[in-house]
Design a protein that fits this description.
By secondary structure, this protein is mainly alpha-helical. It has helices at residues 3-36, 54-58, 62-94, 98-109, 116-127, 132-137, 147-171, 175-183, 188-199, 201-217, 220-224, 233-242, 247-274; strands at 40-41, 47-48.
Length: 275
């Protein structure tokens, strides 16, 4: 066997399982979703294999546009709050000694060691009427089953996805750049605005993408902490597939979410190139 064939065989052995995994669990489901979008819903649910473009025109219905706007609002608020909290956190972690840096990073990812649904249900205990927050403050605020509770749950769930890429971007910065800026008379704020922030924009873009996308399509948090009172794209897709059994329109909604993801990936790639 020639060396070239040996390298090809080695590449196939190592890459083959991953390629099969992606093909079976990613490409095939995507192909099914794409194909379902041009068929009709049966009288009792399921799919009737008759070509139609009705599912795409239904996306422009004001009812569904309102649902999309609510999802965009929740995802945007979550992303903004995650950035405001995550950037200072990542910056402080990057400035810690190596031992404390490791401890801080473990603390950031520690919530991921617990089941996601359990973590969300824990917030119902904190935010409910007789919950820990109201009991501690001696108040009776309506903290649960509203959009504020949903943003809180999404922020808690996805904040680590903002901190980690920001930490990676800040950690790679050359400290001599900040020192040179200070030596030239720049204030700490000017150094941050003119040196640190521009050089960490790729990390900002990645963190925003990692937070916005799962927040946009999440259906667990709106269902548990929102009480199902605010329909989102995630809950709508779940309803179309599991309750209404309108698989073609559910697939169209899922395809729209995928297209949003592709647009965000293009924007993130552009920001990275600029950075």
């Amino acid at each position: 066997m020639s060396p070239a064939w040996g390298r090809r065989l080695g590449a196939f052995v190592f890459l083959g399982p991953g390629v099969v995994y992606l093909a079976v669990l990613l490409l095939v489901p995507l192909a099914l979703i794409l194909s379902y979008t041009v068929f009709r819903r049966g009288r009792f649910g399921g799919i009737v294999y008759e070509f139609t473009t009705e599912n795409f025109s239904r996306l422009l219905d004001p009812l569904y546009l309102d649902v999309v706007l609510v999802s965009v609002k929740l995802a945007t608020l979550t992303t903004v709050f995650a950035l405001l909290l995550g950037y200072p956190t990542a910056y402080l972690i990057a400035r810690l000694p190596r031992t404390w840096k490791t401890i801080a990073l473990v603390a950031i990812v520690l919530p991921f060691w617990t089941n996601f649904i359990i973590r969300v249900y824990a917030w119902t205990i904190l935010l409910s009427g007789p919950g820990l927050i109201n009991s501690t403050l001696g108040t009776q605020f309506e903290l649960l089953y509203n959009q504020g509770a949903m943003v809180t749950g999404l922020l808690y769930s996805y904040l680590p996805l903002m901190v980690l890429p920001l930490y990676a971007a800040i950690e790679k910065l050359d400290p001599q750049l900040r020192e040179a800026s200070a030596n030239l008379g720049a204030s700490a704020f000017t150094t941050f605005r003119r040196v640190t922030l521009p050089l960490t924009l790729p990390g900002v873009a990645t963190g925003c993408l990692f937070v916005f996308v799962p927040s946009f399509g999440n259906f667990v948090v709106p269902e548990i902490l929102g009480g199902g009172r605010s329909a989102t794209v995630g809950t709508l897709i779940r309803t179309e597939f599991l309750k209404s059994r309108d698989w073609p329109f559910g697939s169209t909604l899922a395809l729209a979410v995928i297209l949003v993801l592709i647009v965000l990936l293009v924007i993130q790639s552009w920001v990275n190139r600029r950075g």
